[in-house]
Records
---
Amino acid sequence: MAVKPYDVLIVGSGHSGGMAAKILTEKGISCLMLNAGPQADFARDRVTKPVYELPYRGFGEPGRHPHIYQANEFNANQWVDEREVPYTYPADLPYNWVRVRLLGGRSLFWARESFRLSDYEFKAAEIDGGGDSWPISHADLDPYYSRVEGIFRVAGRKEGWPQFPDGNFVDTSYPPDSQTIQKVIELATARGIGCSKGRVSMGENGLASSINLLLPDALATGRLDIVPNAIVREITTDKNTGLANGAYFIDRHSRREMHAQARVVILAAGCLETTRLLLNSGIANSSGVLGHYLVDQIYGINVVASVPEARDGKAPQGLMGGNTFMPRFRTLKTTEKHNFIKGYCMRISSGGGANPELFAEYGEELQKKLDSYAGSCVSAGMYGERVARFENHVRINHDVKDAWGIPVLHIEAKDSDNERNLAKDAADTAEELFHAAGWEMVSRTERYNPPGYSIHELGTARMGDNPKTSVLNKFNQSHDIKNLFVVDGAAFVTCGWQNPTMTILALAMRASEYCAEQMRTAAL
Amino acid sequence: MKRRRFLQAVAAAPAAPLAAQQAAAPPQAAPGARQPAGSFRGAQSAPQLEIAAADLSAPPAAPTFFTPVQFAALRRLGNLLQPAMKGHPGALEAGAPEFLDFIVGISPVDRQKLYRDGLDALNARAKKQFQKSFADLDDRQADAIVRPQLVVIAWSEDLPRDPLKHFVAQAHRDFRTATQNSREWATSGASSGRRGGRGFGGGSGLYWLPIDPVVRG
């Protein structure tokens, strides 16, 4: 069955698909949005329960989400179940692919950390030769970032640092830093490490999602139709022109297959699902780089110290609490010599306790330790940049199919010494700061989570000026098929250390306005 | 994304106003429309019954996964690692061994093997050192076997490679969670009130029901 033709077909409803729908419909363009999952009803689908009333006493169903470290039994049903939509990877290279198919996608649940990329990322090749440069600079994206920050109501503190571009922030006041955080800032500043605050999308009512900030505007135009439970299997192209003309999709419940027609196709299915769809469709890959240059951020290290004056519940008022955020501070100058390129950010938090597994004790002796350390700890964690490399890639595994018969992705992502050295430097830096502060070291590890854990998978359909080495042009438009756009994180060239959502949104806004203009002038 | 930050984000998400939801009202028969003879008019409302939560935490009479000897060792280990203290129930009072018999019994085979081999190893060492089964050791004797197996775990995914150390670390983690997430802990009057999860906390949280699940035969 064919549904009515639309101007634009949008696959996916998260931040990028929502932005495309808002921009296009507000310019008078009719859009059909297909989303692979249902719409959640936050009132109907959630209930408050004590943990002992859950089926598995908070342990979760064994083996259900082996790669979603963020999953617990309370939220288990919000994630894509990999038994339903599996993926494969080499046995020695596990990949944590964390997906949400509800309407709004991962925009329902993100941590709302809202950073811009800087020219240290956009101009990677010129800065350090690690990865290619983007075909755009921060200046190109700056006005779009500002508009996105306005919609999402980003709170942040302006610093004027080139690696941490300021934005269009809402007025925010910060409580005074605790004495331990002041100490960290003093020591870090003396070492040339700038300390700031996190930048967070305030949104509305604590939610900064496609479903409350973007899709309502699009629906209000009367030009957006949304079909939930529509799993897109293949983008279709016109035999004569080679242009995209729609997509086959499968109803999630009945498995009935349908076709949607459109003049333009915009993919916003969430990076790897977008690339999977392109690969399964056999299109947009004359360059041979589709699926390659997969990146995400390293999330890791755990360095914990205890402040002696705060032990045994004796912390005076104002000593403990709060945190400080250190944007990338390594390799900003070419004169710096390290055994790595790129950088990382670090967050140092004050006032927590110690994890019981940091003591080789049990029973009452363990409890005494926990009571003594409660509220006395300062801890450090980092997000670092992985280098974009051709060999880190995804491809179709035709031997495995999902619950709807669609071939799955095979993911191969391997870290190098650069990633390990970044993490080690972060742990060394935190440990040295804590020593200098005179605090007791409790624990230190430079371990970090597997690729994918950050839920920031990026690349695999990267943009560039050269059609032989990139999939998209600088407007997120396929080099091969001019009426096909990819507006999600697949377009990234490098990932930076920054959470990518603001950049995804700014790129989606820019690409959608370009697309609308092309449609208006009949270039599309 | 840090697990805690993610939980905070979820907890903060309100009921979402969404224009698309408004279109979901069920179709209604026109006023005065005739119903076919013998048909039911669709109920427009139904009472919401007050259903008290039954106390179903009493343990079953016998383990279903572990052998009686293994289960006796598991109980002894739980009582050692997670005793009753500070007004809180211990592993035994919380029914944690019985719960672990259930959860390990439906876990992947590597977890099942870890537990069975670990309990067998505790019994073997108890026999060798004290000529008793592990369940019959006093605290000092049990400590002599268990303490050398304790290790610091700086990264939660990095459990020890040595199988017995790995088992003791996993069992310690599981006993804490099963005990602190129990009804007995919550009703002991000393509940932390923290949002619960897989980790150590207990308390209540917002539970996502299955959302429009696909039903397969």
Note: The mean pLDDT of chain B is 80.
---
Amino acid sequence: MSTTAVLFPADVEDFGRELDKIRDEVIGSLGEQDAKYIRGVIAMQRRLELGGRALLFASWLPPVWVAGTAALATAKILENMEIGHNVLHGQWDWMRDPKIHSMTWEWDFASPADQWKHSHNYIHHTWTNVLGKDRDIGYSAMRVSPEQRWYPIYLAQPLYNVLLALFFEYGIAVYDVELERIPTGEKSPKEALSQLRAIAGKVRRQIIKDYVAFPLVAGPCFLPVLLGNLTANLARNVWAHTIIFCGHFPEGAEVFTEDQLEDETRGDWYVRQLLGSCNIDGGPLLHLMSGNLSHQIEHHLFPDLPSNRYAEIAPRIRALCERFGLPYTSGSLTRQTRSVWKRILRLALPGPPTTPAG
Amino acid sequence: MTVATTPRLRRLAGKLTSPLLPEDYLGLVNPLWATSELRGRVESVRWETADAATLEIRPGGAWAGHRPGQWVRIGIDINGVRHWRSYSISSAPSSATGGDRIAITVKAAGLVSEHLVRRVRPGTIIRLDQAAGEFVLPAEPPERVLFLTAGSGITPVMSMLRALARSAETMSGRFPDTVLVHSAPTRRDVIFGAELRRLAARTPNFRLHEQHTRTAGRLGPQELARLVSDLAQRSTWACGPTAMLDALSLDDLHVEHFRPPVPAATGDGGLVRFTTSAVDVRADGATPLLVAGEEAGALLPSGCRMGICFSCVGRLTSGRVRDLRTGEVHGEEGDIIQTCVSAAAGPCSIEL
């Protein structure tokens, strides 16, 4: 445990109040421009998808195949990240548009929306980086903090992190069913089975769409279309995995123990969210393509604020952290990715000893 | 369009667009092609009086038409937020060849009506529900009719008059013996004034009385009886403020109320649970449950917000509610309550 930041309780509450103020300001100023933004992104994503699929119908020409696949991969990334993830957080519920609402949205991802909302919005965002509580930590199968006990199985974790990256959507979907809680009696097999059925339904629909229906419609281009769709899905998986691992595991992100949760105040919660998250530096394109999870800190402080506002409040959060002497971790995509992989490789081996680091 | 019209094709196309619907992509070309969500395009906005305007709307293909006198729910985005209100349709149902437009006539009062009258421009896409309401003429109109209206209460009656006039002209139908008694502050405030006067001038069976209340005062029961000597023999359709309707006791009466909610009772309040939405919110005893739920992020059905249209109703599963219009505390498990005019009287839960 490397709790670098120690604030007096009064300071913590001041910090929390300042954040509440920023939140209220943003909520008070939501309006037409924000609505235009999300509708614009959704329209662009759908056009990109239609364009990509249309190009793939002419994909006997290699450059056309590359262009079509790239467009489709981009569309799938936008659909999952800037649109799906954020709509499911309820960021756009204030518009009261049933077509763009967390209660009605379904996405092109193996996790059914309602299962995802429970495991992600509730479990992960509430218990962020708390060992034993936040199931996102290394997705249980991995050792991402020296506090976790080492077992020989972790020697293989670099390998299965690669597999997780490639098949991210299936991995996440099945992982969220929490099969390991069945033997302990915390979860009924019946509930798990009905969740798995829902996942199977979504996986089947995606497979029919991407690997059967579109290739068949393409006729002579059956194989290139199938390969293009497969490549787009894999690219989306690897990209989502990369961005998400950069959010909580680079050097500087802290983990917490359950006893630190006792008597946690609103201010404490904010501080924990801040210390457990890392931003990725970059331009508007990176922010868009990462679903604004490049602003992981802002997202974890305010998971339900519309993502287009994170960039605008980020400098204010950073200044606030400076004022209160709190770390604000951020780095370029390459640096953060390298840092994540370094950690995964290092912790595959036993150690290092967990003396409180400075 | 063909994709949206054939169920089998639509199901097949759905395999290509899962988890979205084909119309989510077709909507990029023409938003009116949606069938899961009925939409309309505002074609024109025309002033009727200094503070009332008629919006002509082209509904999407799924529009099922309306009967004269019915109202329609309109959903419009104001500063990014969707608002729903109900408005009477003032146009006659379109004839077989007469195009597919509907008109609503709106008096600028309140957030949504102000927006519709003063800020909406032709081309704006709005959301619609199918027409509803029982304030309608029977297919075979009675021999003698009295319309009793005030202010914007003329709008549903205008739809009926237009329908009667058209059937009299085109389908050799007859215009029933009709009297319209309409109240408005001045001559200039009479919505559809010019059209009504023209209709009265050319239709022998139609008599129009305008009561300009600023100079002539409000219409009382005696005055009405004097104006319409055969009052008892007429079937009456009345639409206007409650005060006017209550003052006139008539037989064979069809009524449409326009009444703003009166937040009379305050007090209790409590934790309100919207069970389907999984939203919990603490509401005071003066805030309508609908408003409390919406502010907490629940996607709730709504309509007139005046306790009239029953678009907002939900099943009470526990607790009791207070009727904001009367202050009465009521409700038992299973009761259907109107969330727009009910507030929490202690903790309660609603199946919405």
Note: Chain B is about 20% helix and 30% strand.
---
Amino acid sequence: MNLIDIRNLSIELQTATKPILAVDRVNLTMKEGEVRGLVGESGSGKSLLAQAIVGVLDDKWKVDADRFHWRGQDLMRLSPEERKVIISKDVAMIFQEPMACLDPTTTIGEQLEEAVDTEQLTGFFWQKRQQRKQAAITLLHKVGIKKHEVCVKSFPHQLTDALCQRVMIAMALARRPILLIADEPTAAMESTNQGQIFRLLASLNQLKNMSILLISHDLENVTHWTNSITVMYSGQFVEAGTTEQIFSQPYHPYTRALVDSSPKANMQIPSKSRLMTLPGSIPVLQHLPIGCRLGPRCPRAQQKCVRAPKIKNFHSQQVSCHFPLKDNYS
Amino acid sequence: MSKVLLQVINLSKSYKDKNYWLNRKSVAALAPISFDIMAHKTLAIVGETGSGKSTLAKLLVGAELPTTGHIRLNGQTLEPGNFKQRCQHVRMIFQDSGTTLNPSLTIEQLLDEPLQLNTDLDEAARHQLIRGTLQKVGLLADHMSFYPHMFSGGQKQRISLARAIILKPQVIILDEALASLDPSLRSQMINLLLDLQQQMGLAFILISHNLGIVRHFSDEMIVLCKGEVLEVGKTNEILQQPKHKYTKKLIMSQHFQLLHR
């Protein structure tokens, strides 16, 4: 059974003049225990999609979907309150800048205790207080912080970025979520610290069977840690498949360009040679091209591309393109 | 055969800790370092935060005074306080290009500033030079009357590149200049930099922690850790056969071998 199954999710920004379609009919499915990468450059709507799943978008944004199933349950039929109960119980999210997300005026210990689920505590209030403290310490141990005495007493600014991110993950684990959404968890970090955080997420995934939606702007950073990848561009769905498929035989010209432009993935090309790129830059939200939004930059674009393409399926690899690169690999 | 362009001899930097006025302690940010750069070549500097790579960049560009050592450009010593001489030949591009451009000036005014301060060209010649430089970095002459907020991130990075090359420098320091760009724009920028290097014979000093870019872009590299130089040599040799444990760890942490197919 699929953990989450989203079909044709659109997010519209209501402005004074006319609504802007920021995310245009995106599909996302995740199996239980899967690590899925959600890759897209800036302005591709990947963070918006994550926020729409968690339900933290405000009234300016209008979210619409054909199907939104959570473990077989249709969330579209429920009222917003009921939906919130289910989502907040099972889904947790961690953010890009851990230090900015933690409260700078209180200690890590207090913030962690606040996050501990009250339903897990039993007994009288003095017993509860003790249990709450203990739960916070256990959470810190779970994310690999051994010196909990120091950590509990310190303020966010006294810890390093990687430690703060661990604390954020600890808070996310407090309610024992089934799905963890990690929105660029390592964006502002050193490569060695990035490794630590990714290893922690991978071990949580394997030990607790927690599914992870890993959001990143860079394809090359996440490939090692993901089972499957969904690629987005400028608010549109581009391609989805297993990591192996995306890397070795991308069907969409955009995915192809992403893989080719990554210096890390092209170790065999001589150094200082020209990298393959797409011309032009990412369109801004106010001036989006019609149809396939890659159109103006795409090397294979033809007249047909002014209409948005239908999603095609090749061996469980989904592509949204009129002219997929399927002849290249036969 | 290309000649030695920039020669760094025994350059080091240490900061005094002012708290101990009797027992003055000093913190070494950068141990003595020596290297040469040729024209048309790129030197990469790799290391974590606190490894002294940004200190090295600041020393080279003249923002900090070195504790010991000196820098020679074409055999001529660069004086620590002489910015007029230095900023014509050594230029720098920063990571966050958006915040290094003055938001209240148009692109023409932005690019005009270094010309007014460092050259004695008249207005028409300056205008012509700005026009040519913008074309070199792939922008249009029409962009001259635009303000920085009208550009996207990749274009802003191109403007800071234009500002760097407008004085026809010999060395450009790229301090994490490629890190904050999106992948498709980053490869455009790498291509542009490589083209400019060929045309103008520039030497680049690339400060980066993305080893993929370092491998693709640089000829030689220096690995720094806590201000100490761990390895110096050809990029290919170091990446294929790292000698030091720290370098191995750095390479492992970026899963270099994994994508090697």
Note: The beta strands of chain B are 4-17, 25-38, 42-46, 68-73, 76-77, 90-93, 171-175, 203-207, 220-225, 228-234.
---
Amino acid sequence: MALLETKDLTLAFGGLAAVSGVNLTIGEGELVGLIGPNGAGKTTVFNLLTGIYRPQRGDILWQGRSLVGLRPFQITQLGLARTFQNIRLFGELTVLDNIAISFHWHSRYSLLGAVLRLPSYYRHEGEMRRRAEELLELFGLKQYAQEKAKNLPYGEQRRLEIARALAARPRLLLLDEPAAGMNPQETQALMDFIRWLRQEFSLSILLIEHDMSMVMNLCERIYALDYGQVIAEGPPGEIRRHPRVIEAYLGEEVALALAGA
Amino acid sequence: MGYFRSKNIAIFLVIIGIYFAVDWLLEEGIITKFQQVNLMLLGINVILATSLNLIVGFTGQLALGHAGFMAIGAYVATIFTVKLGQPFALALAVGSLAAALAGVLIGLPTLRLRGDYLAIATLGFGEIIRGLAVNIEYVGGAAGIMGIPRLTTWPWLYAMTVLTVVAIKNFINSTHGRACLAVRENEIAAEAMGINTTYYKVLAFTLGAFFGGLAGGLYAHYFYLIQPSTFSFLRSFDILVMVVLGGMGSLTGSVIAAAAITLVNALLQDLALLRMVIYAALLVAVMIFRPQGLMGNKELTLNILRPRGGADRGIVGD
């Protein structure tokens, strides 16, 4: 059974069909790309998968169970975690606290334990702190542990967002344009990092990305989206040569280049 | 880690020390009657400011109905002592729980609203409570309830104030408190990280209401008399001013601001009308020179005596 499957996923904003009839399948351990020109509906798909929007038609199946109607936090607790295109860290809090917040839903002490500072508080709080530090170490962010998240350099903020998503212990990680604003060297490093992540945490990953070379090199399978519809699906080699993809996505750039823009 | 770290012992000794020092001053009559009234008011204001800060400063929900919760606590506690002849401790507990219950009932529908909309809705709630008190003959209508026994003594006041501050501090420095902070920082991200944001907003609101009700019960049993006008929206604003002045998201800031405002009010008492002018000017000055409030979102801790690497202190495992 597929880990995640969408069937005829549809959402319109007013008269504009943001996503229409989208069928995606993501298998266990797969690294799948989602591409498409600006406004194609990629982030809307993410928002549908994570419960921020509710589809008007169609279904989202997580290991055969429907996610439609669940709140975002419930979906996260089932094993889907995400990052955001425009970074959404808890800016005023420390890097360590950012991670600890993701541990919250598997924290094991009660409100009373917290207020009365029962032994369970000290035990679990120490455990959370240790695990958060381990994760930061793994992500090379340990030296920033006590720094406010908003004071981190941009690249580190992106990395912290991924670390925070992983702290929620997902089985499927949704990355929304992780390479946005990065130069080629940083993008290369990010690709190695994502591959390593998948191994280390035995994850499935769904990736939105604009950087073509990154998607083509990284993903095993790609969905191309345009005007809210899947126009092509397949391995990178096929997508690269697919006429509708060239027209919708790559063709646009070529056309602009020809126009001298 | 544990109760008996040197830091906790030091704080405990300071708390006990302050209690006996003030107790001695009261016994010896060094603290005058007038100062005594302000001392009680100071404790009550500390409870009000820290509990509102939990809602506004730490969870980021701009609520303007704190006087409403205070009123519920005051009226319910008074009914229990005056009308039903119950002991003070029970009256305080029931008053606080009634306010907390009101917090849940008001929180569930209104906390869907954001920012200014929530402010208006909670402002309306406070006025509804006041309006109810005016129209219920059982609690004296507009005249209120008079002749409430003075049961709020220094030990009661001090114990309740310390209890409130410690409970709120412990709450904030736990995973539950961090969930509230996450809601304040970014609700969408908090939800995406597995936090039930509705639950934590309502929880913060309920806890804040509980302690607001406690302050009301203490207030009623010190000042002999409660009237609906005591709990008008102006009082809600007074409490909010303390929170903003101390710093949104700083518990020690709220304590300092509540103390400072009580003292300034007491010192300026003789100046009559001019008092409000000076008070307002002071507030304007603070907001110009320290827009983030006296403490910002930092805490005054014993760690301040130790040098640190310049970074802000985290709250994990504190």
Note: Residues 1-79+170-261 of chain A form a domain with the Rossmann fold fold (CATH 3.40.50.300).
